[in-house]
Specification:
Helix content is 31%, strand content 14%. It is an alpha+beta fold. A hairpin with a 4-residue loop joins strand 1 and strand 2 (13-19).
Length: 228
């Protein structure tokens, strides 16, 4: 059984579902994306994504019209497996088609691109043996790039807050909960972390804080202070 957070940008609300591994992901089309497929190699009992990412998946799957092998989707940042500010940690990225032939991958890539629903569909020259697409959202905190995470602060609700809470907890700065809602406990934990590492202790996770905290926590593995 997995607990799944789903962020709805239309209402700015975080919803929570409990699903078995063989059940469909919330908001996914039919049985085209099961929980275990979205989970991939993650060992976490808690997963998260967005309504927009599921809608983009639905459009792609309908356009392609056949099964799509999902090699990697969700990961928690301390599990690693991707870059320091990967969209996989936000639950909005997919690496697919690894077991399918080049013709199938070309067709999947074309279907994903033509939907216009994904924020980024990686050029095939960069991923010749799989197809990567993601439905990132928000303006990156670091200027001059289309990648990275947006600035989050008190009052924010989204999966990037989940990444921040997860990172702080793993590093021993307790947010008391893992819920994707940036409240007083998350702000206090972030200020304590910022002070400890010599950053401006303003309780805002912007470019410099994201760089520092993600590089510190990525791939360190589950710690005793992780919250599910």
């Amino acid at each position: 059984m997995a607990k799944i957070f789903v962020y709805d940008a239309y209402t700015n609300k975080m919803m929570v579902y409990n699903r078995d591994e063989n059940e469909s992901m919330p908001y996914s089309y039919g049985t085209t994306l099961k929980v275990k497929e979205f989970r991939g190699s993650s060992k976490s009992p808690t997963l998260w994504t967005t309504v927009a990412a599921m809608e983009a998946w639905n459009l792609t799957r309908r356009s392609y019209g056949k099964s799509i092998h999902v090699g990697y989707a969700f990961k928690r940042i301390w599990e690693g497996g991707h870059g320091t500010r990967s969209q996989h940690y936000a639950g909005v990225a997919f690496d697919v088609g690894q077991t399918q032939g080049s013709a199938a991958r070309n067709a999947i890539w074309t279907a994903a691109k033509n939907t216009g629903a994904w924020g980024y569909v990686e050029p095939q020259s960069m991923t010749p043996t799989w197809v990567h697409f993601d439905r990132r959202y928000g303006t990156p905190a670091c200027s001059g790039t289309t990648a990275g995470y947006p600035t989050v602060r008190r009052g924010c609700v989204n999966t990037y807050v989940l990444i921040l809470q997860d990172a702080l907890n793993a590093l021993g700065y307790s947010t008391k909960t893992l819920d994707g809602k940036f409240g007083a406990n998350t702000e206090n934990a972030l200020i304590a972390y910022q002070r400890r590492v010599g950053l401006t202790a303003d309780g805002i996770c912007g470019c410099n804080t994201w760089k520092k905290i993600t590089s510190s926590v990525v791939s360190i593995g589950r710690t005793q202070t992780v919250i599910d």
